[in-house]
Amino acid sequence: MPLNKKDLKGQRIDCNDFSMADFADYRGEDLFEAADYFWEYVADAVKKKYMIYIQPMMSGPRTELKVYDRNTRSVRKFLNFCSYNYLGYSFHPEVIQTVKETLDEFGTGAVSAPLLSGYSEPISRLEQELSRLKGMDSSVVFPTGYSTNVGILSGLLKPGDVAVLDILSHASIYDGVRLSGADIKVFAHNNPSHLERVLRKAGKKRVMVCVEGVYSMDGDLANLPEIIPLCQKYGAKLLVDEAHATLVFGENGGGVAEHFGAENEVDISIGTFSKSFGAIGGFASGEEKLMTYLRMFSRSYVFSCAMAPHTAAGILKVLEIFKKDPSERDRLWDNTRIMHKKLKQAGFDIGNTKSQVVPIMVGSDLRLREISMRIQQRGLYTGVVTYPAVSKNKTRLRLSVSSKHTTDQMDECVHILKQVFSEVKD
Predict the structure, then answer these.
(1) Residue 293: pLDDT over 80
(2) Region 289-308 average pLDDT
(3) 3-state DSSP call for residue 238?
(4) Residue 140 sits in a domain of what CATH number?
(5) Distance, CA of 208 to chain centre
(6) Which residue, 221, 275, 287, 277, is CA-closest to 243?
(7) Could you tell me if 180 and 34 lie in one domain?
(8) Is residue 54 included in any domain, yes or no?
(9) What's this model's pTM, rounded to 2 decimal places?
(10) Separation of alpha carbons 414 and 412, rounded Å
């Protein structure tokens, strides 16, 4: 049952008695009432040193970074297994030089929507290069990865349509479908038999199936070899979000669809620049007619300021470097295999990950809080994943492996994790 005022009024709120899910479902007469009680929950979490989110980064996302530690009120150095800077391109000297030069020519931002004066020449070139990378007709660049999924799905689907989502699909996919008014149906994660049952029930309605290439919280891959034939059998369109897979999977870095040799059987491919590209933004690729339509009807594209020209120029330089020398990806895969092996040998449950996204299953929210506090005290910074990113009893740490991590850094990460997990039992 959702919390309400009678459950909380007059009580001292102990953060150990609640989770964020309780406040997400809170029901009260006043619109801001949930925020009042959540404030008390957060205040108690800060007091107990469980509040590890929103601590200012005092340096960039290298394998070691400086963070203002709220608990010690000091700047501390941390071992960084939290950033999505998988290939280290955000610090590549050629990328930085290109960005600086573009700043001199174009200034700090687009300062206009893309349909007006915000569509800069670097963005135009970037869209052409992305289409080549994805092996598709056309691409559209969005300000963020989140706005890409929201804009594409809300611009395409209509009330009465059906979006069939892998239950572990990213929040931006769910939000885009909700905004469209289409019906949401889910299928069990990577389960083609369940997907077929859902598609069969959809009948003759217009259907879009949405999956992730690499699942952002589990690190496993979409079962495209079995999902694609089902979409074709039932006449459903297929969207694949390759956010964590672009430049990592596929011979040319196109993603998991290319990895399976199925890039020509995907209707819409979504990507982001905030992972392997070391920047910010998102893009969609597909048929030219479809991309032209979505460019005019995706509200998060039409009504947002365009990507800054220097950001687009930096991403173009990343693509140029990657094509010339993919050795960073080779190092990333070496480190990923090493990290998987070390964690398994140490007895950790890393799920079914097949990628540089490595979950370490924890269980209860309370145990996760204690573990996250202790690893940060020891100087390790990781993703700490709780509701609403995952269900309430499937909390986890999430490690992001980089091509720049050294063997010593990976050993130290595993050592800290072993210490802390041995101290904090189920």
Answers:
(1) yes
(2) 97
(3) strand
(4) 3.40.640.10
(5) 21
(6) 275
(7) no
(8) no
(9) 0.94
(10) 5
